[in-house]
Amino acid sequence: MKLLRSIESAFPIIEWGRTYSKQMFAEDGVAAVIVTIMLIPQSLAYAMLAGLPPEVGLYASILPLILYAVFGTSRTLAVGPVAVVSLMTATATAAIAAPGTIGYLETAIALAFLSGLFLLFMGVFRLGFIANFLSHPVISGFITASGLLIAFSQLKHILGVQTTGHTLPEQTVSMVSQLDLVNIPTVIIGSASIVLLFSIRNYMKAALIKAGLGARAADLVVKAGPIMVVVLTTVSTYFFGLADKGVTIVGAVPTGLPGLSVPGISFDLAADLAAAALLISLIGFVESVSVAQTLAAKRRQRIRPNQELVALGASNIASAVSGGYPVTGGFARSVVNFDAGAVTPAAGALTAIGIALATLFLTPLLYFLPKATLAATIIIAVLTLVKVEPIIATWRYSKRDFSAMAATILLTLLVGVEAGIAAGVILSFVLFMHRTTIPHFAIVGLVPGTEHFRNVLRHDVETADNLLTIRIDESLYFANMRFLEDKIYDLALGCPKIRHVVLMCPAVNNIDASALEGLEAMNHRLQDAGITMHLSEVKGPVMDRLQTTSFLDDLTGDVFLSQYQAWKMLANPAK
Amino acid sequence: MKLLRSIESAFPIIEWGRTYSKQMFAEDGVAAVIVTIMLIPQSLAYAMLAGLPPEVGLYASILPLILYAVFGTSRTLAVGPVAVVSLMTATATAAIAAPGTIGYLETAIALAFLSGLFLLFMGVFRLGFIANFLSHPVISGFITASGLLIAFSQLKHILGVQTTGHTLPEQTVSMVSQLDLVNIPTVIIGSASIVLLFSIRNYMKAALIKAGLGARAADLVVKAGPIMVVVLTTVSTYFFGLADKGVTIVGAVPTGLPGLSVPGISFDLAADLAAAALLISLIGFVESVSVAQTLAAKRRQRIRPNQELVALGASNIASAVSGGYPVTGGFARSVVNFDAGAVTPAAGALTAIGIALATLFLTPLLYFLPKATLAATIIIAVLTLVKVEPIIATWRYSKRDFSAMAATILLTLLVGVEAGIAAGVILSFVLFMHRTTIPHFAIVGLVPGTEHFRNVLRHDVETADNLLTIRIDESLYFANMRFLEDKIYDLALGCPKIRHVVLMCPAVNNIDASALEGLEAMNHRLQDAGITMHLSEVKGPVMDRLQTTSFLDDLTGDVFLSQYQAWKMLANPAK
């Protein structure tokens, strides 16, 4: 029974598959058609963004979707190539191999494989908590900076020039130096695509409804917008012979499904790609789970983050095995899938069939597709990633968080994606570590006429010259104990009249071995200085553990049940 | 005035120097003589342990002591070469250069320089908190393992063989393979030294007092024990011509003070040594501050840890500049200094003069000193580092802490000092990070007949089907927010009857930008699931900051002053 339940929990498909019906199949089918139409140009475009041949984007949209359907806990997440991960793939891969070579493709495939292994490992060992150390400001800063970087990197395709470099300054210099090589037909195709895509996305729906179309039909037309622009520009390029006038086209795309093979990865390559693979895994996971949770809540469904790691791991390994590159759950695509009425992950599997059919039959039609059109698709898609409002909100709310965010944005733009995210994480970490080393505590005194004790800085309370009472508001452990020790030595040894130190522990849930040694040392050192150390209001479980040690025997003072008892016994309020 | 105070705080010598008297000078002088007598053989021995010529140990005991006297906040800490740091120096240096070469000496000097820079940097930027991440179990395990490793490494000098390797297995294999080369005269000298040193340390004092000597005089004789053994074995070696019979002797030690020069360190060398230098700095600092605090408390004096970083940094740079190797505050030596009546750091400066005189006039007398005697001095000194009791105590108190300790001990012995300490720190860190990602919280219910709310798991309380109340016992920030979110989705979305979630926040002192976004997302997602989110008992300062955001406007529910008000308003106790 228990085994059965854990098998079910490892294969969520068993749960929803059991009650799958024709009705659900019909709903999933409709969603799959809509997502497929949206995914074809996106797959091609994101593969181009990653510096890879267009078919690699299609391959990454077949097998991974089927694996996610088997392992994923989200009913509506749409997995596949996404913009930010494509950018990260381009950066990491270009550091190892020259774009356009076989080595480049092999490196990107290895990256998907490694990042799949990382995800799987984290899922199996329940290490998803590692992703918690990517704070919101760091992620949000990173996504915004990536959006800008991606949009800017696509300008070269719109202008028809060849730029080099990954950072904003490198790309700008390279672009400016080639302004005289701009190809006018390419600029026309590119700009027209941008204007069309932008108009369809923002004005088409209202216009169609005004013209008498139903809201749902109008919606469908809007979603087919990118594929219409693809068709339009491809046909124009063919008819006007624009390829001969300098417009770069996609060219021959191999027909047929990808072959399956486990990529061979040398230890050196794995070592070189490890950091990038880990970052891609974490960023992909965080973004994907966030989308999945947002959509799941709308239908009161639940997401299991550790199982999501397994599902994304399996998807990435599947992508690598079938000649694809790193994938994750995409935001826009998942929302479309959800809105189109997908009820189970079967919609994803059906989408995979749609893409497989496209790979089998449609690729010859892509020959004259201009790269400028794909670039326009990317630009319109990623501009939604760039958000100024969270930057302002973070600045207003917390300067500490803002500094981590600003470091992430600036370094991502100026040095690169990995440097940006590393700077943000390290800065959050240092700020966080610094804070964890300072435990919350307060010197307290008696509220006159009561048995309550409050912070001497905030309340008008009675204190005694011979008695120092510290209320500790947190568990004590290796990282924060030394700060407390130093503070108490400062306070107690600095005032010659003090004879007793009472540690009031109502909020101490745990004392680790380091903190215990710290307390023991403090007891001895205070004793050497002629000061007695007491405890008060120690919680039951903490007291139980202390009783297994010799600490309570060595304690120079007493353990009081209430701070008021300690006060009555020890205080000498005469000033 | 403020400037003056900060100058005084940077140069503690100004404070104690102002009231320095003849009486204090006399007391410091006596202590200095005793420490000098103890330090001469120790300096030679620890230099040998570090694989360096004996004079390097003396050089490291002159200038560093003077710099510490200027910058240190401890009145009685005795700085100089110590066993554990010597071992770490040997390991780090041997990884770069072959022992006995000029390159080896230059590398050890560079290590002192780098570790001085690290300490100074941490002191100036008040980064001493970094050392808090070395937990007690890791440090104590590391010291014990180092003691064993050091004692074992000296056996070769007692046996008169040449072994290679740094780890316990390497050394054992190497020693066993050379057992037929053991030199009998060396074994006799070495064993006799060990027996003598051990007897003097443990039995001499009682015997002398029994024989009618005063306790203080007896104590002095015991402290002079190592130097007496040095004289005895040196004289024996000379008279019996043992050097010709295979006893390895110290040989010619250069006479005169060291020349001063800033060591030239290439960027490559600095990069290779950085990790080792950082570890040496941190271990040295932690041990030194611990000794300093123990002694300071006995006289109700105060230690400023960040200033100690500066003082130890200056001492190490001084050591490097004067041809010495890494130094720190030594435990045994500082206790002797304290017991001998040192009242100010001037005692350290006077000790430096004593060692300088020895360097000028005594080095020719060291020619026939057998290395086996120095090895015996080291073995007797480091065996006090090996403590089994803390290992047992940690095992009893916390399995989590014990696992970090055991990893440190095993890896230090089997792989090396750096691997050992790294494993311990990483393991403590992972355990710590994992814990920080899980905030303390409890589902609470109403204690019948009161207005109090308590944990439903521990108390018999009233709950309501339509209401989930979570008491959060900790501040919310990026590392722990996601866990809370996931938990609440699990709890709230899993029970179809729940209509309200109340977050009870009496212990939430801070909400960072990530946690705020988490709360916002939770509010929206619960809303999508038809659940209203409320807060109760929010602290004043937290409320003030929330009011600067749009969170409270968007909140689907209310903010209640007390949880009881929330209960009266929302609960539907009919089951």
UniProtKB/TrEMBL annotation, chains A, B:
GO molecular function: secondary active sulfate transmembrane transporter activity
Coiled coil stretches, renumbered: none
Residues passing through the membrane, by range: 30-50, 56-71, 78-102, 108-129, 141-161, 181-200, 220-240, 273-297, 309-327, 347-367, 374-393, 405-432
Domain STAS as annotated: residue spans: 457-575
Signal peptide: none
Alphabetical list of Pfam families matching this protein: STAS, Sulfate_transp
Chief location: membrane
Places the protein is found: Membrane
GO cellular component: membrane
Keyword Transmembrane carried by entry: yes
UniProt KW keywords: Membrane, Transmembrane, Transmembrane helix
Keyword Zinc tagged: no
Source domain of life: Bacteria
InterPro entries with a match to the protein in the record: S04_transporter_CS (IPR018045), SLC26A/SulP_dom (IPR011547), SLC26A/SulP_fam (IPR001902), STAS_dom (IPR002645), STAS_dom_sf (IPR036513)
Topology within the bilayer: Multi-pass membrane protein
PROSITE patterns per record: SLC26A (PS01130), STAS (PS50801)
Protein name: Sodium-independent anion transporter
